[in-house]
Amino acid sequence: MISIWGQIQNILEKSLNPGLFKVWISPLAAEVRDDVLRLVAPNEFVAAWVRDRLLDDIVQAATAVLGSAPTVVVDAAPHGAASLSPRAGRADAAASALGAGLDAGAGEAATAGGAQALPVSAAPSPYVAHAAQAVAARSASGAAARAAQLGLPLDMPAPNRTLNWRFSFDSFVVGASNELAYAASRGICRESLSADTLFLSSGPGLGKTHLMQAVGRALCDASNRATPRVEYLTAEEFATRLIAALKAREVDRFKARYRDVDVLLLEDVHFLQGKERMQDEVLATVKALKSRGSRVVLSSSFAPRDLKNLDTQLVSRFCSGFLAHIDKPGFETRRRILCEKARLHQVMLPDNVTDLLADRIRSDVRQIESCLHNLVLKAKLLNRQISMEMAWEVLGHYAQQEVVMDFEGIVRKVCEGFGISPKQLNSRSRKREYVVARNSVFYLARKHTDLSLKEIGDRFSRRHSTVLKGITSIEREMSRETPLGRQVSNTLSLIERNGRITYP
Fold this sequence. Notes:
This protein has helices at 4-15, 18-25, 44-53, 55-66, 88-105, 107-110, 126-136, 141-149, 179-190, 208-222, 235-247, 251-259, 276-291, 312-320, 331-345, 351-360, 365-382, 388-395, 407-418, 422-425, 432-448, 453-459, 464-480, 483-498; strands spanning 29-33, 36-41, 71-76, 197-202, 230-234, 263-267, 295-300, 322-326, 403-404, 501-502. It is an alpha/beta fold. The chain has a five-stranded parallel beta sheet with strand order 5-6-7-4-8, sandwiched between helices.
């Protein structure tokens, strides 16, 4: 005769995603007493996950079996204790499969030879293995320690309840350059956008991150869950955590986390270029999310058509949703951005100063914010009112006069800044200083000219993909604020301040 918990499991197995059932329900042991269903999980991580995300499903299944809704309590097993469900035989088999499969090659669990990544249900659960090993090694302290270690993923931060959203829709200034991206981001929150995938693209400092975080914040605020199912990270962080999961033999936990969300926010997907295994895992994750009706928001410094060395299926997924590009803001938008930021700083910005800054700084929103921030700090430190004279002094560090940079001027100033000749810049040498200088030209040319990536590459007899890779490398170093990144950032700032050509 099937136990009460066995009957409840049968219902859950039919109603839940197979991967969810195997990872989170199978390892649970159960005890029914009066109107209380007590579940015991292998560790606190699993217990917390089940409480936050599966409690309603368990109550419904238990009600169908018991005839009335029980009180469900989910506890973690004491350290070193066994917590086997009635399906212990399955746990033993899963533990054996885990040892044989992942030792043979954990990487293949994610991808192999460009093939699609395995679904969540295709690999054994680390929690099942954990429970089985705890029993088998009850008398061997070393083996028990290893089993306990399997429950601790490497570099796997706590779920999104700890996220600190820095931006919101309320603080985003809408103009002609970004109104489509703003409307699409709002639409995917309200489910009024007739697409479940949104791809945001723009140059640096134009608002991609602001909109991504605004989407996350809006969904978390609107959710009635204690822990909203929203995950936000960069493609590089996704890859780093996947590698850590492979090393720790925690692939199932990784997959369960990122494939069982309502919304996935993935930034800087151009990082995936040339990384086949990571592309396969992202593709499998996106497919899994779309099959369960979840939404995906992606961002990149490049449009999908510009991305190279990327799986065609993944590019197709990127293009299957709504594509929204953000352009550089016009004068009126820049002016309203300054007014909004001044309001947040709680300072009065004279109209003539606002007009001056909006007219002189045109490159990106980040520079506008930085200039205003420095102006406000200077006024506070000197205990003076913001004036045109003070604005001109601060502006001198950002733009001497309104400007245009042409390709030849960029090459000349980069050579001066890095202390190399144009011949060395254009050489095939892989010396670090030449590569960094060349990538800096790619970055500045894309930012300040209308040349396409192919046209920039043609000037150096390089391929389009080389230019894209170089720009990505520079952006990553600067965003990480590594010693090289800070050096490059300072050099490029000097070039942009002093290497400008005035309008005729």
